[in-house]
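Re: the 298-residue chain
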Amino acid sequence: MGIRLGENQYGKAEVRLVHVRRDTDVHEIKDVNVTSQLRGDLETVHTLGDNTTCLPTDTQKNTVYAKAREWGGVGAIEDFALRLARHFVGEHDYVDGARQEIHEYAWERITTPDGPHDHAFSRRGGETRTTVVTKDDGGEWVVSGLEGLTVLKSTGSEFHGFPRTGYTTLQETSDRILATDVTARWRYIGVDHDFDAVYASVRGLMLEAFATTHSLALQQSLYEMGRSVLEAHPEIAEIRFSMPNKHHFLVDLSPFGLDNPNEVFFAADRPYGKIEATVERDDAPSPGNAWKSVPGFV
């Protein structure tokens, strides 16, 4: 029986970088978390401990910081990830592939009586913008998205007509709270896009579809969110969702002599339904290695 080294990669995980643009009195903040991983001629590194083709992970970390300065900031996280991947592959002949994953944390200007403050910010909720860029001999792929986008509808949602068994206790409803934490990833066709503008548009379209769809199931809301994005953005091949159903159960107040006309709910954190699906184009180009490096979306 033979033994051999399988697929592998290595790098520096979660390099925290905050860049402040100070070219005017109105500062701009970019707060990101970068994970850099490289692939290449690493056989002897693993089998013999020969490090001649092993670019230190510390060097990868330092490169992230240095390039943020040399390139005048981060810009769109997709563009920053593409430039990092091209740098690592182009500058080191023993590196033939790179994976750059970036999470961005949004900050908003604090509002004062004189308007938005020039250099004071507050962190915006738990929502995170993401991208994973993969570069190898086969090409370049960009998968972007968001996670932790919490949304809720207090009406306009139903759930009924489902099969019943001897273990079914859930009651049908024509009026319920629908809430979820949206994790979405979308695969771009090509890499030459205004990524900031597309992100803002995709986020807005998903929110609008969630709000305006009279939902008979969370699955239906998910599909409408994806459909609206693909109809508006031909540069996106597919969009994948993972959306927990954050259950809100009506509290029985009858023991206290009170009615409850859909006003008082118990918000359960677990267990929860977990809805996952892909909305894609019939003619979408092959994904290549795009999804291979995206955690949780294989």
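The radius of gyration is 23 Å.
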